[in-house]
Amino acid sequence: MSANAASESALGRLHEAVAEELLKRLKFGEVIYDTKSGEMIQMPGCCPATLSVITRFLDSNDITCVADATNAIGDLQRELAEKRSRKGRFGKDQKVVNFK
User: Fold this and answer.
1) Does 40 share its domain with 71?
2) Residue 98, domain member (yes or no)
3) Backbone phi and psi for residue 36, each to the nearest 5 degrees, phi listed first
4) What b/e sequence results for 55-73 when a residue is b if at least 16 CB atoms lie within 10 Å of its CB, and e otherwise?
5) Are 70 and 51 in a shared domain?
6) From CA 63, how far away is CA 55, in angstroms rounded?
7) Are 47 and 12 within one domain?
8) Phi, psi torsion values for 31, nearest 5 degrees
């Protein structure tokens, strides 16, 4: 560790502050600058860039979730499976005949 390194408690406080800020943005939305209008806009949720930061933050901290019937990850997994099954009906391997 270098002589200028932050203490473990300082790093822990910084980590906690980042986590709290990301959670706040996820829950309450965030204010973004609209380059077209020049106005600040309150978004109801996170912008894609913030969602990407949240995802990387969770991944970097080895945070995972098991999909089951009671959580949003399970819901997402079911929706993706449904979309894949619908896509399979008219996928590349199948021929579609147009009747005129």
Assistant:
1) no
2) no
3) -75, -45
4) eeeeeeeeeeeeeeeeeee
5) no
6) 9
7) yes
8) -100, 130
| Tokens read off for 56 | 């990387």
- Residue 97 has a pLDDT of 58
4-15 pLDDT, tens per residue? 888 999 999 999
Tracing tokens 């933050």 back to the chain, one arrives at 57
CA trace torsion 66, 68, 73, 78 (10° rounding):
130
Q: Residue 18's closest CA among 45, 63, 60, 57?
A: 57
Strand 31-33 relative to strand 40-42, pairing:
antiparallel
* Residue 79: domain span: 65-91
Is 69 within a domain? Answer: yes
Q: Looking at residue 86, what is its pLDDT?
A: 78
Note the pLDDT tens digit of each residue in 18-71: 999 999 999 999 998 999 999 999 988 888 999 999 999 999 999 988 888 899
Amino acid 92: pLDDT: 58
